[in-house]
Design goal:
Largest sheet: 5 strands, parallel
Strand content: 5-15%
Shape: globular
Number of strands: 5
Helix content: 55-70%
């Protein structure tokens, strides 16, 4: 299987890099959160609010299974997707996992006005980012076989991924 799965913290650029990477490699791009939203007929925020995080995580596991069975995809995994071992193993069967690493400072800047991500709708957003990043960073690193610096433009990050994988 030859999918390229992009992982990293929310705001690291998985979707924007993924779209550029798909265009440059003539592959189909799939944003996992949008994929789940289309199947559920609800936004991620609505799923969290109405059904809870566990229901969303089950939808996410199912999306991993479905997408890993397809080929030639560029997949932008959700920020929490690869914090679960089952999802890592499923997605690895379908391709290579690339970690887009972005500094804490840049993540705070990129996410400063975000209103879509349920986990960031808290009083002290930067503290929440720091807490989640500390939990997730080791998991991203253990899941990925390829690491790329995401502190650049999405086009440059996509070019760097192509340089590593092709």
């Amino acid at each position: 299987m030859n999918n390229i799965i992009l992982c990293g913290f929310m705001g690291c650029g998985k979707s924007s890099v993924g779209r550029k990477l798909a265009a440059k490699t003539e592959r189909e791009f799939v944003d996992m959160d949008r994929y789940i939203e289309e199947k559920a007929g609800k936004t991620v925020s609505e799923i969290f609010a109405e059904q809870g995080e566990e229901a969303f995580r089950e939808m996410e596991r199912e999306a991993c299974r479905e997408l890993s069975d397809r080929e030639d995809l560029i997949i932008a995994a959700g920020g929490g997707t690869l914090t679960f071992r089952e999802n890592v193993e499923t997605l690895r069967k379908g391709g290579r996992i690339v970690f887009i690493d972005v500094s804490y400072e840049n993540l705070c800047k990129r996410l400063s006005r975000d209103t879509r991500r349920p986990l960031l709708q808290v009083e002290n957003r930067n503290e929440k980012i720091k807490e989640l990043l500390e939990q997730r960073l080791p998991l991203y690193k253990s899941a990925a076989g390829v690491f790329v610096n995401g502190n650049f433009s999405s086009a440059r990050v996509a070019d760097n991924i192509i340089g590593i994988l092709y």
